[in-house]
Amino acid sequence: MNKIGLMDLKREYPLLKKDIEKQIRECVGSHRWILGDAVTGLEKQVSLYLGAKYAVGVASGTDALVLALRAMAIARRDKSCFDKHDEIITTPFTFIATAEAIVHSGATPVFVDIDPDTFNINPLAIEKAVTKNTVGIIPVHLYGLGCDMGQIIKISRENNLFVVEDNAQSFGGMYQDKKLGSIGDCGCHSFFPSKTLGGWGDGGLVATSDHKVLPLLKALRNHGQTAAYDASYIGYNSRLDSLQAAVLLAKLRHFDKLDNLRRTVAAKYAKAFDTMAMVQPQPVRKGYRHAYGLYTIKVSAGSRDKLLAYLNANDVESRVYYPVPLHEMKAFKAAKVSGELKAVEDVKKRVLSIPMHPFLKDNEIDYIIKTIRAFFKT
Ligand SMILES: Cc1ncc(COP(=O)(O)O)c(C=O)c1O
Asked: Is residue 2 domain-resident?
């Protein structure tokens, strides 16, 4: 058996090749390689897909967060950036970019605990962390599963806070009847190649249904310009590249098919792990549609690192997302922590992500399950 990768982007290419190449040829032929038809076309298609009124393509998922936060500072606080005393509540159990964006926006991250079963931010911990300095919340839909957006929106309304969703890992997921990344004031998406909708390089997008936020995002991604060569804000060069948009337009047309294939893989994993006491499968919750950006199991703290080494030694690539929570990183020493982070401390020693992509073959899934069974001798 060849090594089974966490992802395998090579396998999707033959299926998408014709469509992608056609779309790229159109983009090349248009000679509009900055903010051309491919970008506006993708923005239209993604906003329709998400059920958000508007979508703004930007250079990466990280920039999507930074621009969304800057837009919140301008729209809600009438200032260019937040100040250090402005607090934004988020989870420390996420990728660096979430809190990095908070710091770039001028505000201070406040880390709170997660739900140990869903790995997502705990709304009760958010409620306790709200102070007179809190300006907003960033829920991160981790691994593909949505946060408890009902509770989070309720807390935000009661306290006049904005909600910027970090949906970098969960494009295609749903909370009740809404697509993740279309529920808060802004939804931030990443098109990093390994994401559920991934480009051929960096890319990102902010979705919003707020007509006042839309022009701010458009200005911020283009040097703060509100008219040609006239800037109202200090902005960025953060436009989504047109060639990336062309690739993504083609891939979006195949998205539902690939999403269903991922779902089939997840169902096979769940069926097997349900019979194994030592392995907690990736949770599924009523009212949530998982996007399976990653497939993450939870095992005991004593066995995780040994299982990780065993799987990699037996040609099953696996990885820990995330071994070091953000509050433990030097970069975030000026951030705040609210309450205890007991679930984060526990979960960081127990999670393990195993291969998950639409093109996993049955014999590979069987082999992965068999290898995990062999490790636990069940
Ligand atoms: C939760 C989360 N937020 C933000 C990002 C940043 O996205 P990008 O790599 O497109 O900048 C990532 C990327 O991995 C992520 O996983």
From this structure: no
| Beta strand spans in 125-212 (E) | 134-138, 162-166, 174-175, 178-179, 186-190, 204-208
The reply to whether 293 and 316 lie within a common domain is: yes
Candidate from 192, 244, 353 with most ligand 1 atoms within 8 A of CB, to mutate: 192
Per the confidence metrics, is the pTM higher than 0.85?
yes
Closest CA to 125 of 317, 354, 336, 276: 336
Name the domain count of the chain.
2
Ligand 1 neighbourhood includes 61 CB (under 6 angstroms): yes
> Ligand 1 centroid vs 263 CA: distance in angstroms?
22
How close is the Cα of 140 to the center of ligand 1, in Å?
10
Give the model confidence (pLDDT) of 250-291 as tens digits: 999 999 999 999 999 999 999 999 999 999 999 989 999 999
Q: How far is the CA of 367 from the centre of ligand 1 (A)?
A: 30
Nearest atom in ligand 1 to the alpha carbon of residue 190 is 10
- What pLDDT is recorded for position 18? 95
Q: Is residue 156 part of a domain?
A: yes
- Residue 1 forms part of a structural domain: no
Tell me the pLDDT tens digit for each residue of 291-310.
999 999 999 999 999 999 99
